[in-house]
Design a protein that fits this description.
By secondary structure, the chain is α/β, with parallel strands linked by helices. Helices cover about 45% and strands about 20% of the residues. The chain has a single domain, classed as CBS-domain, CATH 3.10.580. Helix 2 links the parallel strand 1 and strand 2. Keywords: CBS domain.
């Protein structure tokens, strides 16, 4: 049964997305909102005005961006009196001005809707990512996470055990 599964069987058709002119702060907000309903969400799809894929930003890229803005001020690394609340507020303001361009994954792993689970696994292993976008033509239809594949695989495995 498991080997009959396709990418569309496991994909999440509701996924976080932003336009390519969104700020880092907006992207963080969108990711947090998505995590309320799906705590393992870890990628935001970035599209242009026409809805075409520009790239994606995952949690690691968001961490990298936040680190660069939060730790940018050399005062954070010095001993002495530092107003940490003010430094954090300043860093958050910086995030509202940061663009996504420097953090985009421009060639995200792509799956076709009818790709079998073995090709989905192969895509994860080759891309070294734990998510992939499901696309039909130039439209993003959904996202598959490695946790979704794991749940599908182990559902059948546990029954056999």
């Amino acid at each position: 049964m498991m080997l009959r599964k396709r990418a569309w069987d496991m994909m999440r058709d509701e996924f976080p997305a932003v336009r390519d002119d969104a700020s880092l702060a907006e992207t963080i907000r969108v990711m947090r909102t998505a995590m309320v309903e799906a705590p393992d969400s870890q990628v935001v799809v970035v599209q242009n005005k026409a809805g075409k894929l520009v790239g994606a930003i995952n949690l690691w890229q968001l961490f990298k961006a936040v680190r660069q803005s939060v730790l940018k001020d050399e005062n954070l690394r010095q001993d002495g009196q530092v107003d940490w609340d003010q430094q954090f507020a300043n860093a958050c303001l910086i995030c509202t001005q940061m663009r996504l361009d420097d953090y985009l994954i421009r060639n995200p792993p792509i799956l076709k809707p009818n790709e079998p689970i073995l090709l989905v696994l192969d895509t994860f292993l080759k891309s070294r990512r734990d998510w992939a976008l499901v696309m039909e033509g130039d439209k993003v239809m959904g996202v598959v996470y490695v946790t979704d594949v794991y749940r599908e695989m182990t559902r059948d495995m546990v029954q056999i055990f």
